[in-house]
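REVIEWER CHECKLIST
Item 1: Sequence provided? yes
Item 2: Single chain? yes
Item 3: Sequence as submitted:
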Amino acid sequence: MRVWGKLLKKNKIIASFTGECHMDTLSEKEALDICMDEICRHFDIQKPLWFPLHQKDLSQYYIVRFYQDAFMEEVSFDLFEIEVIAE
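Item 4: Structure as written out by the authors:
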């Protein structure tokens, strides 16, 4: 599984990173969790809260957008977006 993470500010990408996880023995949820950890570690941000809307967006569009309300502390960007890349 590959997941592309982007930080956006004023509708411009200010940072981008692709996390990767091999799903040999992992479920899709576990692989996504590993990729999210890798992306958040790379950006040096906390992992956002996961709401039911995020799960719905992931299953329908393979894209999830996290705004300020998904983070417990203040962030320096407007949007954190992840996109599952089809292989």
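Item 5: Key structural point noted by reviewer: Residues 5 and 82 are 4 Å apart (CA to CA).
Item 6: Recommendation: ____
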